[in-house]
Amino acid sequence: MRSGDANLDHLFRRAGFGASAADLQAVAGMSYASAVDYFVDFDKQPDDVDTKIGLPESVSITTRGQFSPNTNIEDARQRWLFRMVHTRRPLQEKMALFWHNHFGVGYSKVAGVVGGVLGTKMMAAKGGELPGPQGHYELLRERALGKFRDLLIEVAKDPAMLFFLDGRTNTKAKPQENFGREVMELFTWGLGHYTESDVYAAARVFSGWNLRNVPGANGNDPAGYYEFIYNAAQHDIADKTFTFPISGSRTIPTRAAASGMQDGIDFLTTLANHPETGRRLARKLWNYFVSDLDVPDPGFVEGLTNVYLQNDTDMRPVLRYILRSPWFTNPGNHNARYSWPVEFVVRTMKEIGWAGFSVDTARVPLTNMGQTLFEPPNVAGWQLGRAWFGTGAMLARMNFAAAVAANQRFNLARSFSATERAQPDRVLNGMLQRLTPAPYTTAEMNEMLTYLTTGSPWTGSETQMNAKAAGLARLVAGSGEYQFV
Amino acid sequence: MSKFSRREFIRDGVAAFTLSFAAPAFLVDIARAQGAVSRNLVVIYLAGGNDALSTLVPYTDPFYYSRRPAIAVPAGQVLQIGSDSSGKPLGLHPRLTGLQTIFNQGRLAIVQRAGYQNSSRSHFQGTDIWGTADPTNPAGLGWLGRYLDSIPGTMDPLAGWNTSGATYRALTGLNVSVPSITDPRAYSFASPNSGAEAVNERNSAIRLASLAGNRPHLAFVNSSSMEAFATLDRVASVVNYQSAVTYPNNGFGNALKTVAGSIVRGIGTRVYWVQTGGFDTHSGQGNAGGGGYANLMATVGDGILAFYNDLQGQGLLGNTLMVQFSEFGRRISENGSQGTDHGAGSIMMAIGGGVRGGLYGTAANLNPTPDNPTLENAGGDVTYETDFRSVYTKVLEGWLGTDSTAILGGDFRAGAPAII
Question: Which of A178, A383, A455 is the closest to B341 by Cβ?
């Protein structure tokens, strides 16, 4: 819902998933700069969102037997959507989603090898709840605003990544190129800054970065897990030459096998600490936080890269820089990004209502909109912007809005005061305080007023409100203006 | 007719022109194609970089076996389909019995070593290059989008149909937007209300979507809504399509069945995009009997055969051309994970009633000596022989009946394999 401050509404849409009444209460009275700090310094708010699961005032989850978000991928999806709706740390979830798209690890390939239970664990298990390391997304969430270099190194050792890009089978006899290529092409520098010979050398750098299996009683035992090991016997100790310097020299010299893991640490450190990584992240962050209608402003890219390098790859000052920058608050950049399907779904629930509605309802629609959590189409993540808006995907958005509006019919109708119900234009204005589309033209406003008064003369009766409030909510949430954040 | 301008010819089609021996071959191609009615193109994308050497196996090349000790398909198990023009015997993967059947009917053309110079080993850049047909600047419109843009008259929002959830540069046009419809059953409109109230709301939504004015991004989103409303009925007509043929129950089979349904219902779509993934086989490829690659081949071969039989049974095979591609081939030598990493030259296939079946181009010699012209990257990868754009040229001119040079931004007729 709207706060009355356009910049604050913008901040909630971009750095979060829209604002509920409780969200607005948390920042009431704050200046814009203080509100940015509230988002960026999110660890000042407790990470207690999971304790709200199952409470009657929360959005519902659907249980099939026991709710098992650590071992059942559908439940893991529900938990993440739940967190997006109710978190007190919206930027943490927003950045976890950004990193999920950046690193592009998909559940199916992992589960195809180890089965659904261990596959879900590897993608989404919460640390400490089951034996073994935390899941990939929990890692992204934990380090959402830490140093990128540390995140990159942890992701390189992450079991889900070692399955997804086949590092688990990278041996000195037959190096595996998959991770070595993508870490340069997609995770850091981008095409044009390395050669095929660098791909070969990078593959050898990561030889021996493998996994250890600690099996459970059977393949579906949640106690079983995989964890990273550096397998010195499988590390290629010979020197490795790149077309660019690693720690000052183009050649990583021969090392004893026991300390050969340092090859990979040095290589990842070089990649992360390089200005090209700052620039690549800057361009992606521009498209995520500022605009995907306009190309990144060179001043923004260089400014962000400087902040990134001066702060030793720490993303927290980077995010503060973005959200306080004139590019972010520029009114021309409000509603200037095509929303991602999960953003649309979460905002629709937050703004239309959630009491008695299950996040599981969004599962199939999200797939039809083109975004299944834990299942990016490939390691490059989702195709963004206009690519979200095929006709089938647009229908799925409209139809999800219909599902939420139908479910919330009575809550919606009763949310309007008697004064509002007396006149259709007041109902429309009230709806546009609750839902936050980009501004409509007069012609569009008139069209929605026409809808409210089509069929029978306006009375504002309970029957009429039950039908029209739900229909209007669907009309707004399904309109083009609502598809932008 | 003694004189004509090519522009008039392209515009007016075969009626403006009588075939003569004096006409250049490409004009004969275009004229013949324009004489045919309601032709479909089904583009099949094997996502991830297909390991062509496992699809079409050079089973007498000793280096194929020495460089792939774990994943080579044994010579005794390949499906033999003869030799190429250089005399090299080749065989299909044992799980491609469906394609062998079509090959034996003379309706499968395989173009070996299709690709381009300095092949990208990146999935994403590679896919964009194949999509734009522009290896030097793969950031523009797609070749299929440009083709659909070139069709005269009012653009039909269902002129193209993408059966996958992802969008591809190949389908990006200036004026056309190809709908992505993965499941026709989900392609319907829901309202929180029913009866007349739902109709009121739908009508209001349609009018609302027409009011974008000069706001281009909003207009783009609204055009998706408008096209959805405009195509609901035609797509719904495909939902209840019953085929006499049993399709494999997987994503690829179901997508092809949907395509067959829409061809049978005659809903007017010209270009279909169908894909199946999993071809990024860095590990666990297996060889003949089992492993990931055998499953991929079964999916492809069984799905295509079902589609082929379905159309043939209904007398529609002659209207349909399938063209298969992938973003790159894979390295010749296997890696340590019983898989293969990103490589270069790959194969293309064309299947349909108008296809002149056979093996086109020549197989690589897999001996990694420096002077071997069929390899590149120090003998690591297969180098291309046939420019993929020459295959596109044949498709555009010989099948779709349009001038390829405007769409591809150049003349790639030289060396085009005579697959149609």
Answer: A178
Query: What residue in A sits closest to B230 (Cα-Cα)?
Result: A391
Going by C-alpha positions, the residue among B199, B164, B198, B194 that lies closest to residue B178 is: B164
| Residue A173 to chain B, least CA–CA distance (Å) | 7
User: What percent of chain B is modeled with pLDDT above 90?
Assistant: 77
Q: Do B121 and A181 touch (CB under 8 A)?
A: yes
Return the number of other C-beta atoms located less than 10 Å from residue A456's C-beta. Answer: 13
Which long-range contacts (C-beta less than 8 Å, at least 24 apart) are formed by A124-127?
A: A124/A69, A124/A70, A124/A73, A124/A76, A124/A79, A124/A80, A124/A374, A125/A70, A125/A71, A126/A50, A126/A69, A126/A70
A390 neighbourhood in chain B, CB within 8 Å: 162, 165, 167, 177-181, 224
Min CA distance, B278 vs chain A (Å)? 9
Kindly state the average pLDDT of the residues A470-485: 98
Q: What does residue A244 show for φ and ψ, rounded to 5 degrees?
A: -140, 155
In this predicted model, what pLDDT tens digit does every residue of B180-197 receive, in sequence order? Answer: 888 898 898 999 999 999
Cβ proximity of B310 and B245 under 8 Å: yes
pLDDT score for B32:
67
**A443 and B CB contact within 8 Å:** yes
Helix A90-103, helix A6-15: angle, nearest 10: 50
Q: What residues of B are in contact with residue A453 (Cβ under 8 Å)?
A: none
> Tell me, what's the pLDDT at A104?
95
Give the confidence band of B23 by pLDDT, cuts at 50, 70, 90: low
Continuous segment of H or E residues that includes residue B382: strand B381-382
- pLDDT per residue as tens digits for the range A37-76: 999 999 999 999 999 999 999 999 999 889 999 999 999 9
Of B213, B231, B342, which is closest to A391 when you measure between CB atoms? Answer: B231
Print burial letters for A460-480: b (CB count within 10 Å at least 16), e (below 16).
beeebbbbbbbbbbbbbbbbb
**Pairwise CA distance, residues A44 & A457, whole Å:** 52
Query: Which has the higher per-residue pLDDT, B215 or B154?
Result: B215
